[in-house]
Amino acid sequence: xxxxxxxxxxxxxxxxxxxxxxxxxxxxxxxxxxxxxxxxxxxxxxxxxxxxxxxxxxxxxxxxxxxxxxxxxxxxxxxxxxxxxxxxxxxxxxxxxxxxxxxxxxxxxxxxxxxxxxxxxxxxxxxxxxxxxxxxx
Length: 137
Fold this sequence. Notes:
Elements: H1 2-18, E1 22-23, H2 27-41, H3 45-49, H4 54-60, H5 63-73, H6 75-78, E2 83-91, E3 94-102, E4 108-118, E5 121-129
Antiparallel strand pairs: 1-2, 2-3, 3-4, 4-5
């Protein structure tokens, strides 16, 4: 019984520490992220661009500039391997989806996708690679 209680406390500690509530999985958010990853994996930056928020699109002005930034700055997103959707949480008017992505070498990376809903459709407003969070696989 003590082990069960300890396990529950350890499981809930990160949520309690941040004061943020985990939300149930959102298939539409996961589908949006996966669709962009699929587009990048085939080099289709024009399709990948359609999943970016207007703010991101305004920042980069053209799908090719956006694609070049992802290829250089986010190689695990440019050529993703296995993808696992982890916790989803609310931060203000955005939802943040944690995602584990294996890069082409099999090294795991933990990322956070900021998601916004625009005209009833989920769009990616930013991606943060959690530094120091490479996952041994």
